[in-house]
Structures are given as C-alpha cells and as structure tokens.
Amino acid sequence: MKENEAAWPDMSKHRKEPQSKELFMSALKTTVPVFLGYIPLGMAFGFLLDGAGYHWGYAFLMSLFIYAGSGQFLAVALLAAGAGLTEFVIATLLLNLRHSFYGLSLLDRFSDVGKVKPYLIFALTDETYALLTTTEVPAGGSKARFYFYITALDHLYWIMGCVLGAVLGSILNLNLEGMAFVLTALFVVLTIEQYFHSTSRFPFTAALGAGVVSLVLFSPENMLLLSIIFGTVILIAHEKFLGEKTALEAYTAEGRVKEEN
Amino acid sequence: MTETLGTLQMLVIIAAVALATFATRALPFICFSCRAPPKSLSMIEKNLPPMILLLLVIYCLKDVQWFSAPYGLPELFTIGIVAGLHLWKRNAMLSIFAGTGLYMVLVQLNLFSFLC
Lengths: 261, 116
What we know:
The complex is a heterodimer.
Chain A: H1 2-7, H2 10-13, H3 19-30, H4 32-51, H5 56-65, H6 69-81, H7 85-96, H8 98-104, H9 117-122, H10 126-134, H11 143-168, H12 181-197, H13 202-217, H14 223-260
Chain B: H1 7-31, H2 41-59, H3 73-89, H4 92-108
C-alpha cells in the first residue's frame, strides 16, 4: 500500500502548511468507522473472488479502479454466472445509478474544490458521501484537502480489505460476523447528526415512507435506487405542493390587504 | 467451479465496470458543467443528504429475515441502542463502537435464540 500512497500527489505535496497534519488527523479520526467496516466487507469480497479462482491482483485492480462495494460483489456473481460484457455494463449502471443522486446534491459543495474534484467524484461511495455531507470541515482548514483525505483514506481501507481477503483466502477463519454492522451504526449516527443540522423534518418522513415501502416491495438488489427515486419524487411533489400553498397564502394575504383598503 | 476467464478478458471487464461506475458518479457533474443547475435543485441539494442517509440505514436492513427467528430483533435492538446512545451522549465514536460490539456479541453468541 505504501507505493500507492506515494502515487497520490496531494498527500505529501502540502506538508509545509501547519494545518495539513491536523486536517489529516481529523480525517483519520472521522474515517475510523469506515475503516472498521471496509476491512471485513472488502475481505468478504476478496474471499469470494479468491473462491471463484481469481488471483489477488484482480482484487487489487477492482478495488482500485471500480471501488464500489455492491458493484464488485455483483461483478463476482456475474463472473461466476459467465455473463457477457454488455450484462456487466448494464447491471453496473443500474446498480450504481444511485450515485448520480449523490452527485446531484454535491454540485455546489464540490464546485470549489479544484483539482481533486475528478478524484472525489470517482471515489464517491455510499460511506464517503455520508461522511462528506455530514462532517464539518475543521475551522480554518481547506475543504478540498479535508475532502480529499477522507475520500482517499476510505479508498485505501477498501483496497486493503479486498487485497487482504483475497490473499488470505480461506486460510484464515476470523469470526468477523457482525462487524460490518459498523457501517449501519455509522449511518444511524450520521442520520441523527443530519437531523440536528436540518431545518426541515420532511426529508426524514419521506425517507421513512419510501424506505419502508421499498423494503417490502422491492428485491434487496434494487431497493436502494428505487427508494431514492421514490423519495426524491416525494420531495419534489412536497415542494411543489408547498410552493402552491405559499403562493395561495400570498394571494389570499394580498386579497385581505385589498379588502382592508 | 466454472472456468475462470483469461487475463485480457478480465482486464476488459474490470475496465468496463470501472467506467460504468465512474459514469454514474460523474453524470450530474457532466450534466451541469456548462449550464447552471435549475433553481429547484437547491431544494434537492439541501434535502437529499438527510433523506439518503436514512434510506441507507433502511437499506442496511435489506437482508433481514423478518418472518423467521430472530425476526430482525438484533438489528432493530442495536439500532435503537446506537440512536439512544447518540441522542444522549452525542459522541459518534462511542455510539458506533458500542453498537457494533453489542451487535457482534448478539449475533455471534446468538443471544436471541430463545425466540426460536
């Protein structure tokens, strides 16, 4: 992994600035839960790929270049099923389409991050998105650098997990059952933080409705994308309705003013 | 075991899947790279993160078997503890690690087995 770190230029370039180290430590602390989640999850992927008969080098390449948890699991399943290239591409597009929604809500946040932007977009996983949208940049620190540290650290953890799993294969029989729950706990905590920071309660109502309905109606593979689409439609409909209501209120208020006159 | 693919085939597949994944992540940025995003998008930018985070929590429950023991209780119980702990102490590390430790104990020792 060491060579890899060196290959990412921004990590060492700005060492001169005093805040850089603090910023990195802060990102390191922020990403600890992701580390603990990505190691067992990545290892599970590595085990699977190794079990399918592939060299650990592929686990490294996939975690480095694809870097999508569920996407890589899907790829292993398709490899085992002997799928064609078109199936790989279509299945991946459908599975990862949810990431488009992530980007949609990051357009503004990413508009001033400079040259790390392509990398931040490339490495935008569920967990990184959750951290970036909830964690505040430490006072006085550079947003671009803080975002880059978080994103690159998460990426590194994932690569470590995947390679470790593939190399160890079935040699090691660690009882990591339940450890991936760390990501669920992380999402719960970040949701509560969002709740404290959010002015509107409606997104949570929309999510609860869309999520529970999707959990019941849709298959596990499809539910996240469909629930995000469903929830977004609810948000937009609510906004439209509210907009009409305020317009109506303004109209009646105007009428009242006229009547008073 | 099915036959494994050759190196070239694997590299082509990895490249294709990597590009497809990157495309889904880059799509909104490409769409709005030269024109300003519509005004209504600011509502989306504000409300999408909280909604997606709660949806991710619900998504984590996708593989729970609700109709057979232990009926998703270890998950719901631990999520309750994590949320309660976080609302109380508001210490992210404490909530996350206490919750995960608890969950690992619950499932590895099968503490909800009395429900069977």
